[in-house]
Specification:
12 helices, single chain, TIM Barrel, alpha/beta, Lyase, Ornithine Decarboxylase, Chain A, domain 1, binds ligand LLP, eight-stranded parallel barrel, 21 strands
């Protein structure tokens, strides 16, 4: 049993929905990202059901996976988008997403990005500093429009996750100190080109418990009450993304666990009328994808066995960057009673950090196919062309059908924009 429901062995071969990964490797080559359309729908459904009967806007945190086909699928299901750059805004528009359902986060918004977002008519800027607030106000004033804004506050709570993906502590660069927020809101209220619409926080990623959210929510509720006393009425509360997924044996809280607790707290505080905005990324796509790769060589030294595969840290940087665990499944496991040797699964890149998994018990032969599981989030979007490696192709499986949603990059395209000196 793999942890991902839509990637299962059938007759000894790992499938994505009803398509064999052996077939996909044959048709499209490796390394290859394979996504399940049904898994995308299921993830959306888990949020839709959790939100039923309430005013909730799911703004997909598209940095997790921004392939246009995936954005378009989510847009059709009704999501908005959490963007962090002008590039992501351009992708939303290209994927026919609704700009009115876009929230714009990020600590370093440039002027051209703010202009583009105002022109597109986004729902809200999640403002991360006073300097940014002033820049947005200036640009909106010049354009003769009102910019909708929320302050991203830093509630100083521990999300209990990896330090690189924890964002709600005082020593992180994100947001404004929650204690300073009332004064900044008061300033914003004096700026005629701003329209205060909400408050926002995002405390981290791969959060498996709801207690950090509730700690943050307590502080947000206190802030909203204080703002009400200052005569500032908000229309939405954005609690960010961050819900974790199962990579191997985690049991993360579900959207229903989270939302029922949030609604309870809001109702108790008489704030049930606020629209709730969410920015889930990983939990929408993480278990909807695998990275399919082929064993090029097996090699052993006195201490270790290595399986050198054709995917590398340029395709999936999470293991080496965060020490992240991804399950590895043999696509056609060898039937044997022998004890499986332990392998490090490594790529061809000239860095010792180029590994995808360590110490995995597997029976392997040269040319075997492996699936690196849970590779739907923060895999392709963090991929690079290091060592002049073309980025992998991406396909989406839908039942028996396969859609190539991004062909493998051509070698020529990797350097076609470069110029000789003369
Ligand atoms: N909203 C904001 C403002 C964010 O910064 C993020 C993620 C999200 C929403 C979505 O969070 P999610 O639901 O995906 O946890 N590259 C790392 C994860 C970095 C997350 C950055 N911010 C990884 O591979 O684990």
């Amino acid at each position: 049993m793999t942890v991902a429901k839509h990637f299962q062995h059938k007759d000894g071969v790992l499938h994505a929905e009803n398509v064999s990964l052996v077939q996909l490797a044959h048709d499209f080559g490796t390394p290859l990202f394979v996504y399940s359309r049904q898994a995308l729908h299921d993830a959306w459904e888990s949020y839709r059901v959790a939100a039923q009967g309430r005013d909730v806007l799911v703004c997909y945190g598209m940095k997790a996976n921004s392939n246009l086909a995936i954005l378009n699928e989510f847009a059709q299901l009704g999501t908005g988008f959490d963007i962090v750059s002008g590039g992501e805004l351009a992708r939303v528009l290209a994927a026919k997403g609704d700009a009115h359902k876009v929230v714009f986060s990020g600590v370093g918004k440039q002027s051209w990005e703010i202009e583009a977002a105002l022109d597109a008519g986004i729902k809200c800027f999640n403002v991360e500093s006073e300097a940014e607030l002033e820049r947005i106000a200036d640009i909106a004033l010049k354009k003769g429009v009102k910019a909708p804004i929320s302050l991203r506050v830093n509630p100083d709570v521990d999300a209990k996750t990896h330090p690189y993906i924890s964002t709600g502590l005082k020593d992180n660069k994100f947001g404004v100190d929650i204690n300073e927020a009332p004064a900044i809101y008061a300033r914003a209220q004096q700026m005629p080109s701003l329209n205060i619409v909400g408050v926002d926080c995002h405390i981290g990623s791969q959060i498996t418990e709801i207690s950090p959210y509730l700690d943050a929510l307590d502080k947000l509720i206190a802030l909203i009450k204080q703002l009400q006393a200052q005569g500032i009425e908000l229309s939405h509360l954005d609690i960010g993304g961050g819900l974790g997924i199962r990579y191997t044996d985690e049991t993360p809280a579900t959207p229903t666990d989270l939302l029922s607790a949030v609604f309870k707290a809001l109702d108790a505080a008489d704030l049930g009328h606020l629209q709730l905005v969410l920015e889930p990324g990983r939990s929408m796509v993480g278990n909807a994808g695998v990275l399919l790769t082929r064993v090029e060589y097996l090699k052993s030294n006195q201490d270790k066995n290595f399986a050198i595969v054709d995917a590398a840290m340029n395709d999936l940087i999470r293991p080496t960057l965060y020490d992240a665990w991804h399950d590895v499944e043999a696509v056609t496991p060898h039937q044997t009673d022998e004890v499986a040797p332990s392998y490090d699964i490594v790529g061809p890149i000239c860095e010792s950090g180029d590994w995808l998994a360590k110490d995995r018990a597997l029976h392997l032969k040269q040319n075997d196919l492996l699936a690196i599981m849970s590779a739907g989030a923060y895999a392709f979007t963090m991929a690079s062309q290091y060592n002049t490696r073309p980025r992998a192709a991406e396909v989406i499986v839908d039942g028996e059908s396969v859609h190539l949603v991004r062909p493998r990059e051509e070698l020529q395209s990797l350097f076609e924009n470069e110029r000789l000196l003369d």
